[in-house]
User: Which sequence fits this backbone?
């Protein structure tokens, strides 16, 4: 029996799967009915009868399970795209780009932890295969992704113990980039299970370890020409795009950095950018322009973000900058982390907590208009409940700090 494993992504980016026999011909013609209220944040009970339609462009054979396939789905309600589906939002952003004559070309760097590696500290960048406990696992994930048609630029051990990175190659379109990111997460977790390993995309695993970012390189093209590319510096359109991202970034931080742990990464240094700035070849800034002057790198996004939502908002913020011709501040050419606290205080910064990020998000009309009111309201409500739940939890740190009082 051949099987198709059809996948949906919820508002928080978690994957939900249904297995169907490959002979289920009506699935590709009519989709399949699902109970949307059983997927957290997707649908209310009175609007729960959804139709999940397979995206044929994502149908791919599973390399390590011949005869079985993966496909990603989008949801519909009453014949229309369901507005609370994150994948549908990214498709809408691609349509807006196309209406302006643009295509977004993106390249995510995906970091995560292999929890089984028995190492310590932050001195493991580019560990060689003979001393890297994650090498065979990482190689298997990368080879299987390539077998699914997902282009891999490279993979390597990152700084922290157990931390690895798989970087994808350039991908056309916001939706497709997010699709490939979801497939990377799915494959990484499935292969880990097969190898008796555990992996985590938590943004900060331990206070003294580097956190998991999801840096995003991107440029726009028009008529197959990169409109960001310059000679000694990037183009004016790229500067406007940067201006738009910097204008909106603190208001969309709850989407790009969506967990309580996210802000422990951003406030912990170790190349996690907190200050709203940009610069050429400067890894201490939130946006870096690499040396070749053909793309920009957004460095604050972390691996817990829902890629459909995060990539969409980053691109929409940049487009707003182009539309309004928002000039960014002067580029930073020095190490921000070398400045004293008083000087750093003069720079605008990202929120210091998820609670602050939600309050900023809730004060800004751009985010609501970009996400649509249904995704926006549900996301804010879910995160406020998450914050409230965490506020009542007693942590190990509190027990160690106060138990002898």
Assistant:
């Amino acid at each position: 029996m051949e099987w198709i494993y059809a996948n949906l992504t919820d508002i928080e980016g978690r994957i939900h799967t249904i297995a169907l026999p490959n002979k289920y011909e009506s699935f590709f013609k009519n989709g399949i009915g699902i109970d949307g209220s059983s997927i957290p944040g997707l649908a209310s009970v009175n609007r729960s009868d959804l139709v999940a339609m397979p995206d044929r462009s994502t149908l791919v054979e599973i390399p390590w399970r011949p005869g079985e396939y993966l496909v990603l789905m989008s949801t519909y309600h009453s014949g229309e795209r369901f507005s609370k589906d994150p994948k549908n939002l990214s498709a809408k952003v691609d349509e807006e780009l196309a209406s302006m004559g643009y295509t977004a070309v993106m390249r995510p760097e995906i970091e995560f932890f292999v929890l089984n590696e028995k190492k310590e500290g932050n001195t493991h960048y580019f560990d060689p295969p003979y001393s890297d406990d994650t090498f065979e696992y990482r190689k298997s994930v990368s080879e299987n992704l390539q077998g699914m048609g997902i282009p891999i630029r490279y993979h390597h051990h990152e700084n922290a113990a157990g931390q690895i990175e798989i970087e994808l190659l350039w991908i056309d379109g916001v939706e497709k980039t997010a699709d490939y990111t979801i497939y990377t997460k799915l494959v990484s977790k499935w292969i880990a299970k097969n190898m008796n390993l555990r992996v985590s995309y938590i943004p900060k695993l331990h206070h003294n370890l580097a956190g998991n970012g999801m840096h995003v390189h991107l440029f726009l093209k028009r008529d197959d020409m990169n409109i960001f590319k310059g000679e000694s510096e990037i183009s004016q359109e790229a500067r406007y795009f940067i201006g738009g991202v910097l204008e909106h970034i603190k208001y969309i931080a709850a989407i790009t950095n969506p967990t309580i742990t996210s802000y422990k990464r951003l406030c912990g240094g170790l190349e996690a950018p907190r200050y709203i700035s940009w610069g050429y070849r400067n890894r201490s800034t939130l946006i870096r322009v690499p040396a070749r002057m053909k793309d920009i790198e957004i460095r604050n996004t972390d691996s817990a973000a829902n890629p459909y939502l995060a990539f969409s908002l980053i691109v929409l913020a940049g487009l707003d900058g182009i539309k309004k011709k928002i000039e960014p501040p002067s580029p930073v050419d020095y190490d921000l982390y070398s400045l004293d606290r008083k000087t750093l205080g003069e720079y605008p910064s990202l929120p210091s907590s998820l609670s602050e990020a939600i309050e900023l998000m809730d004060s800004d009309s751009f985010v609501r208009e970009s996400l649509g009111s249904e995704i926006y309201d549900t996301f804010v409500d879910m995160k406020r409940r998450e914050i409230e739940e965490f506020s009542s939890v007693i942590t190990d740190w509190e027990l160690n700090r106060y138990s002898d009082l």
About this structure: The mean pLDDT is 93. The longest helix spans residues 174-194. The radius of gyration is 21 Å. The chain has two domains: 3-82, 90-395.
